[in-house]
């Protein structure tokens, strides 16, 4: 979720960061997003059908509230309200936020951070509606039931079968780092310190088990008795030993958030190492939007993943405020990603793209699903990154 405060250190650093360059037209980008999402609201009168993507036949692909992406549309509507101040977006955001409310009781998924904190968290930050707070606190307790203290990690999927057909009962995916911001919020808000402690434990276990020496991340770690690592696998990446692009972006965002929440330098260093892996990778294209997997076999004839670019851009903007020798590079790279996404190669034309903002993301290529399509979460993190960029520039001026 968007971070409001920028530290004094961050501000001082940022005054030295950006070279004179034409600023991104944030207002224009939001005006375009507003046009697209007005169309999206008109084409989606039923709040049980959540905008997700485009089907292979070109029709809109909608999902149910139990799908991990159900909170992103409401979250993006809150970002539109935040940027424009227009109450029509607040009404629409409320409607699509409340449409996810029943998931607060869902203990069968680890994705409650995405599903609840993106819509309700932004809604609560902007309106202080107490109903949102209550729903999130219930949801945080539901999520915490998936944490086993003897394993030290929150369980992601209920089970996972690898490509060889081996079945595992306690898989944890790198994406799970994205839940921790939600749990930190809930710990602060409710006084339940257990939620904070389990988040720290999860982040430490993940740091220990999920990363290779070059700071790239595995997708799936399969845990067994006592928290023993049984296998390191991929699900959405090209291969077990490859670097699935969105996974790297989740890791970068997750450890940047961990540093914000704890001020523990171990997490900052980890976030910086992940950023360096991402930005220095020889397969990262000049426009800084990665291929769907850094090791996809057909590069350069492979699909890009705009969602990974948007997530990474948002994370790098925050990371750039925490100093270090590469802070300037993080900022400039994040801006370059935003410039790319805001240009004609990735941004749709008005009324096209089933009303999504961005084109060219990949959901699950090995599963032959959502390849080179719009994805609702690419839009969400793009809008978030634009707001972060705007806030940083306003602080500087
Ligand atoms: N969290 C699932 C994905 O990134 O596709």
From TrEMBL:
Binding site for substrate: 111, 175, 234, 246, 250
Region (Disordered): 43-62
InterPro entries in the cross-refs: 6-hairpin_glycosidase_sf, 6hp_glycosidase-like_sf, Glyco_hydro_88, UG_Glycosaminoglycan_Hydrolase
One example of a Gene Ontology biological process annotation: polysaccharide catabolic process
Keyword annotations from UniProtKB, A to Z: Hydrolase, Signal
Signal peptide coordinates: 1-20
Protein's name according to its UniProt entry: Glucuronyl hydrolase
């Amino acid at each position: 979720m968007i971070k409001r405060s920028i530290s004094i250190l961050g501000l001082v650093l940022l005054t030295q960061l950006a070279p004179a360059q034409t600023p991104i037209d944030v207002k224009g980008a939001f005006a375009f997003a507003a046009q697209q999402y007005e169309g999206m609201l008109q084409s989606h009168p039923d709040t049980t059908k959540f905008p997700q993507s485009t089907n292979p036949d070109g029709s809109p692909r909608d999902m149910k509230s139990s799908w991990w992406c159900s909170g992103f549309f409401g979250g993006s509507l809150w970002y539109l309200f935040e940027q424009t101040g227009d109450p029509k977006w607040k009404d629409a955001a409320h409607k699509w936020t409340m449409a996810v409310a029943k998931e607060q009781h869902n203990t069968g998924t680890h994705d409650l951070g995405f599903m609840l904190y993106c819509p309700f968290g932004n809604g609560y930050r902007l309106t202080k509606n107490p109903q949102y707070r209550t729903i999130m606190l219930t949801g945080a307790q539901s999520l915490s039931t998936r944490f086993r203290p003897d394993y030290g990690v929150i369980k992601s999927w209920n089970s996972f079968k690898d490509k060889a057909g081996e079945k595992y009962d306690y898989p944890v995916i790198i994406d799970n780092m994205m839940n921790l911001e939600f749990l930190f919020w809930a710990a602060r808000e409710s006084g339940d310190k257990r939620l904070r402690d389990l988040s720290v434990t999860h982040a430490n276990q993940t740091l220990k088990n999920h990363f290779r020496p070059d700071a790239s991340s595995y997708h799936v770690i399969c845990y067994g008795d006592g928290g023993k690592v049984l296998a390191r696998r991929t699900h959405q990446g090209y291969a077990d030993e490859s670097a699935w692009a969105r996974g790297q972006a989740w890791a970068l965002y997750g450890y940047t958030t961990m540093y914000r929440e704890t001020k523990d330098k171990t997490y900052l260093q980890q976030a910086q190492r992940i950023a360096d892996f991402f930005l220095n990778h020889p397969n990262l294209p000049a426009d800084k939007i990665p291929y769907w997997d850094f090791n996809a076999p057909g590069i350069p004839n492979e699909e890009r993943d705009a969602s990974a670019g948007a997530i990474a851009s948002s994370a790098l903007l925050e990371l750039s405020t925490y100093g270090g020798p590469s802070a300037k590079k993080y900022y400039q790279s994040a801006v370059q990603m935003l410039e790319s996404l805001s240009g004609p190669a990735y941004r749709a034309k008005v009324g096209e793209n089933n009303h999504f903002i961005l084109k060219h993301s990949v959901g699950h290529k090995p599963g032959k699903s959502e390849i080179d399509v719009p994805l609702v979460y690419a839009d969400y993190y793009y809008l978030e990154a634009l707001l972060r960029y705007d806030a940083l520039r306003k602080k500087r001026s």
